């Protein structure tokens, strides 16, 4: 979710009435990369027309964390924006989502697609999800701490004392807590979140899905802080923006106009009104050399992507997608046969024996993994131990 901090920056500038020249100046300081496939290649590598002017477009937002060496995509979100309706929707892709990786010899966690750079990351998302990407935004997680400190901290309400001994998160008391940059980074990195209920530390059982929900709560709290702390304070606003642009990477085609469209569509980020979706997956524990992974579930993924598309595009209908969105992209995935975990439900669909995944427009992608029977996680609603903006 942290890649959308770039949108927070744009939102702050727009709300503050920043001049077009100042916007161009700050955007000019952002690192840019060339991704030749953007706007000209369709999912799976085939050609597709550019998005019509003023039509819906998709932005791949990536939070990159190089902690421990190597470049990995820790957070992946596809933001769909329709300037005509002023609507936006977010589709979160869990970092352990497992499938073919462009430029690699075999399948792996989708977070590894960034190892060889943004171009392979974009191509992998297009291939595996059947979603056409028009723009790319990446933020380094290390910059999150600096941004939060420039904001003067972010406030979240924790129902219980909470911690993650691996990421360093430590919230010793329940209630509304101001997180500084270090603790904010520990929260958004948290993969082993636990809370103290009645003197007993309990772990969040929902894994990557719980992490996504916490990141969404953090982002909404950050937007509220931007709206309440930066507006009317030009010096603090400039300090925050100048800090943020140092850790942001965008594609060379992303201009001020697109940034303004993103900002205007994301005005609801500070509330729960923004439409958010998470790809359903099948949990597989200890899958050989890969460890715990999340396998795609074809029919559920397609239905979720269609709903995500329809959330911003009035002409879309359930089960279909527009040219800028997605089309059916998988063969049938093995279904769950075991008991469901928290926030999940078993499926009775027969398991497939296919060894391929079908990309958008029928492009067959070889080497798709096959999962053993497990649980299908459909989504996870907010739990009583989740932090919320305050």
Automatic annotation (TrEMBL):
Domain of life, per lineage: Bacteria
Protein name listed in UniProt: Cell envelope-related transcriptional attenuator domain-containing protein
Similarity annotation: Belongs to the LytR/CpsA/Psr (LCP) family.
Start and end residues of each Cell envelope-related transcriptional attenuator domain: 72-227
Gene3D superfamilies per UniProt: LCP protein (3.40.630.190)
Biased composition (Low complexity): 325-360
Chain intervals for the UniProt region annotation (Disordered): 325-390
Record-linked PANTHER family: POLYISOPRENYL-TEICHOIC ACID--PEPTIDOGLYCAN TEICHOIC ACID TRANSFERASE TAGU
NCBIfam families: lytR_cpsA_psr
InterPro entries tied to this protein: LytR/CpsA/Psr_CW_biosynth (IPR050922), LytR_CpsA_psr (IPR004474)
């Amino acid at each position: 979710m942290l890649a959308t901090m770039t949108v927070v920056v744009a939102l702050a500038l727009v709300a503050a009435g920043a001049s077009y020249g100042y916007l161009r100046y700050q955007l000019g300081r952002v690192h840019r990369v060339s991704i030749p496939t953007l706007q000209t290649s369709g999912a799976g590598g085939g050609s597709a027309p550019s998005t019509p002017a003023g039509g819906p477009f998709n932005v791949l937002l990536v939070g990159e964390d190089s902690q421990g060496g190597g470049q990995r995509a820790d957070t992946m979100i596809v933001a769909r924006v329709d300037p005509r309706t002023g609507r936006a929707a977010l589709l979160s892709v869990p970092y352990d989502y497992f499938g073919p990786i462009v430029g690699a010899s075999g399948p792996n966690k989708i977070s590894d697609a960034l190892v060889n750079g943004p171009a392979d990351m974009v191509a992998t998302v297009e291939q595996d999800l059947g979603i056409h990407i028009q723009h790319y935004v990446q933020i380094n997680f290390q910059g999150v701490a600096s941004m939060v400190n420039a904001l003067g901290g972010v406030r979240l309400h924790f129902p219980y004392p909470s911690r993650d001994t691996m990421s360093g998160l430590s919230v010793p008391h329940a209630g509304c807590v101001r997180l500084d940059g270090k603790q904010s980074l520990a929260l958004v990195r948290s993969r082993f979140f636990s809370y103290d209920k009645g003197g007993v530390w309990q772990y969040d059982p929902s894994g990557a899905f719980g992490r996504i929900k916490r990141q969404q709560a953090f982002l909404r709290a950050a937007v509220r802080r931007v709206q309440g702390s930066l507006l009317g304070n030009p010096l603090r606003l400039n300090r925050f923006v100048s800090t943020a642009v140092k850790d942001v990477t965008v594609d060379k085609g992303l201009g001020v106009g697109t940034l303004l469209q993103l900002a205007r569509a994301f005005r609801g980020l500070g509330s729960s009104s923004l439409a958010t979706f998470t790809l359903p997956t099948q949990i597989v524990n200890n899958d050989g050399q890969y460890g715990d992974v999340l396998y795609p579930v074809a029919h559920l993924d397609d239905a979720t992507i269609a709903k995500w598309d329809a959330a911003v595009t009035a002409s879309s209908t359930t089960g279909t997608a527009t040219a800028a969105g997605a089309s059916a992209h998988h063969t049938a995935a093995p279904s769950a046969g075991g008991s469901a975990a928290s926030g999940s439900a078993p499926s009775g669909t027969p398991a497939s024996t296919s060894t391929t995944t079908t990309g958008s427009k029928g492009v067959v992608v070889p080497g798709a993994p096959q999962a053993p029977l497990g649980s299908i996680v459909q989504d996870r609603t907010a739990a009583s131990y989740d932090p919320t903006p305050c």
